[in-house]
Automatic annotation (TrEMBL), chains A, B:
Gene3D superfamilies: 3.30.465.10, 3.30.70.2740, Vanillyl-alcohol Oxidase, Chain A, domain 4 (1.10.45.10). One of its GO terms (molecular function) is FAD binding. The keyword Nucleotidyltransferase does not apply. PROSITE patterns: FAD_PCMH. This is FAD-linked oxidase. Keywords: FAD, Flavoprotein, Oxidoreductase. The lineage of its organism: Bacteria, Bacillati, Actinomycetota, Actinomycetes, Kitasatosporales. It comes from Streptomyces griseoviridis.
Amino acid sequence: MAPGATLRIMSRIEAPRDDATAATGDLVGRLLGALPADAVLTDPDVTASYAHDMASFCPAGTPAVVVLPRTVEEVQHVLRVATELRVPVVPQGARTGLSGGANAHDGWIVLSLTRMDRILEISPVDRVAVVEPGVVNATLSRAVREHGLYYPPDPSSWETCTIGGNIGTASGGLCCVKYGVTAEYVLGLDVVLADGRLMSTGRRTAKGVAGYDLTRLFVGSEGSLGIVVRAVLGLRPAPPAQLVLAAEFPSARAACDAVCAIMAGGHVPSLLELMDRTTVRAVNDLARMGLPETTEALLLAAFDTPDPAADLAAVGALCEAAGATRVVPADDPAESELLLQARRLSLTALEAVKGTTMIDDVCVPRSRLADLLDGVERVAERHRLTIGVCAHAGDGNTHPTVCFDAADPDESRRARASFDEIMALGLELGGTITGEHGVGVLKKDWLARELGPVGLEMQRAVKQTFDPLGILNPGKLF
Amino acid sequence: MAPGATLRIMSRIEAPRDDATAATGDLVGRLLGALPADAVLTDPDVTASYAHDMASFCPAGTPAVVVLPRTVEEVQHVLRVATELRVPVVPQGARTGLSGGANAHDGWIVLSLTRMDRILEISPVDRVAVVEPGVVNATLSRAVREHGLYYPPDPSSWETCTIGGNIGTASGGLCCVKYGVTAEYVLGLDVVLADGRLMSTGRRTAKGVAGYDLTRLFVGSEGSLGIVVRAVLGLRPAPPAQLVLAAEFPSARAACDAVCAIMAGGHVPSLLELMDRTTVRAVNDLARMGLPETTEALLLAAFDTPDPAADLAAVGALCEAAGATRVVPADDPAESELLLQARRLSLTALEAVKGTTMIDDVCVPRSRLADLLDGVERVAERHRLTIGVCAHAGDGNTHPTVCFDAADPDESRRARASFDEIMALGLELGGTITGEHGVGVLKKDWLARELGPVGLEMQRAVKQTFDPLGILNPGKLF
């Protein structure tokens, strides 16, 4: 981002009230030049409701205007106006993000893509779907199922989050251990650039290496390089329904040993999830699921193979060899779905413990997973905090979730400190500060630490290349 | 690339002989400051042998020097010297590329990475390998097999080509229909930048979204953004040995119909390859394989599933429904391997037809595959040429291979024209000019056509960001 441009933007935002009002009036007038009135919201009570996503500790302000375009041309118009007037733009989907990446600030334009929600094509032969960014993940997943196809990425918020948001944050989910993250399903994009020009990247073919892979550059860029207005997504054939096994362990380390044995043994589970005791209890408290509260760690493994029962038996044996005290395979898909529901409730349940959470997203090589979980326990003890851990264990991707009372300043301070210490530990173990939630505002100091000075400089140079005026979601990532 | 820098470089190359000799002496002296004498080759007979890869119609010259570093520090030294003296650098692996991307010009530095050929780590738990760029694909593939692991990318040249070259060209192979291309296995990179600084990108974890995905930006960048000196590669568990089926069709269109039916039917073959009659005959002529010469198209399908015979039976039925005149499943892995060998010999066999080939690499949505093959036949008729087609049919990725006598100027002209017409047809059908071979020199005019002006401008801007002086393999891609 151009430092000069940022300074201009900031002084604009901090201008005296009268100037700001006049500027907003000008901005809204220009936007209405090519957008219908119902697509331009300015009531501060309404615009304030678009201020932030679901992350804690991330600053946000009241945007000057929320625009809800329905067409590519309308998005182009918004960007042209933003460039002319040097007003920052933050694109938003369902605002289910967990890093503040979609947060707005005073005077900004919120560009909500939720009305661009058409599924334009589903092709079983080409195994692709072409969609607008506002399509809800679950809507797409169900639509492709009707064609015998499967769109794997399944973040916890899949019933509400949008494909555009998934692309912006490169989000993951439970499926990743077998099927990978969102990035692996984005074949091509139409992107509106900072100055309003439209660029196509990638392809709708199974393969393609024509030029630099700008498609992947946009995936996970949190709206800081351009606005995705159309995506070609790769699909897979729908697999058989998965069967789930639950295994109880006397320690998190024993559960992690089982994870390593399963993966080193060449198994390909369709999910491999871990819930620690704190998480199990929180889920029981919230939803009376009847999960085993005496266990230190609950491991869920699933297979969507032709013979899932045989695969579960093999994996169950590995769990027992690693010290599992109890191994319970689900009898049928319905019982399996119940266990997955428990896992999906984890973050909501942990939020109920003390009212507020900070959800970390550290990913380590899976051989270091046990070291990470032991370390998180020490951090929790040192700071006298409850930190529940649920994890995409097969990926080494953990969500240590710090539970705290936001009204208690000291506890809040300790929560923030423990959150940071967990990231430091993740880096020390050869991991990354974010496996699937993105950097946003929450982790931008940590991004610099992970990338190092040369990496950071080149990432900033890429930002500068695509957004020389610094109007695309400035202050995120870096 | 900076136009000014290019001009400087070009005038340097074209300088009078005495100046050029003096400049080369200076360059070699500087290189020897931190490289052992056996790593700096200047004998013109030797350096000339590093001039080009395996593509036809691509200009090349005699490099001033070939350097063969063994360490990252030595590569950094080479880049520092190149930056100071403004001498272009072309990185090379085994020079098996098919687009001229590794071609050198007079006065350039050839940076051969073949001596950096260590496998640094193989981890069955983390399912990663860490390698230097000069490791040969087959060497890595065999090494990971010993750990029960699988590195899928398998270009036809896999016995000689290097991982660094595979990364530079984002190469594919027979495996892609199930396992994807090289890009999908590159998790993290160490890259020496144009000015000699070292940058790490990506991760060695299963997931990670910290910052922009610069790893993928380097994959397929043909050495034009930086020099890959170390790669973290993702691995899979070794699948069971695959079983192959051969199906004979009375027309290419019928074979393509079978491909569409197989893919729309939700099958996941581990390969799905097509050889047209010209290719079948060429392979028989070369290697007396006894393939059926009366067929218009031979389709090879394979499965590496737990029950490949059952999968082959289902696919065989779809082939028959699409009009196959004969369906022959292999009885065992050895028979399967013979069929694959026939497929792997295709390009070599077609080269023997008239002495020289131009191998195209057009990829279309697989629903348009039949239209492409019909079009190629029309192009061959119009230009009175033999064009054999072998194809990764499951990906819609075809290699129409123009056979011609390079000593015949008119035939050569027609060969080049037909090559271009096939790319035009590919674009018209919604495809790309290159599925897996890259752009290099051969297709750079066509890249501009595929990307369009905005895409091209942004790709050039990315080049400029990473290589402001234009010393990294200039004149490739754009």
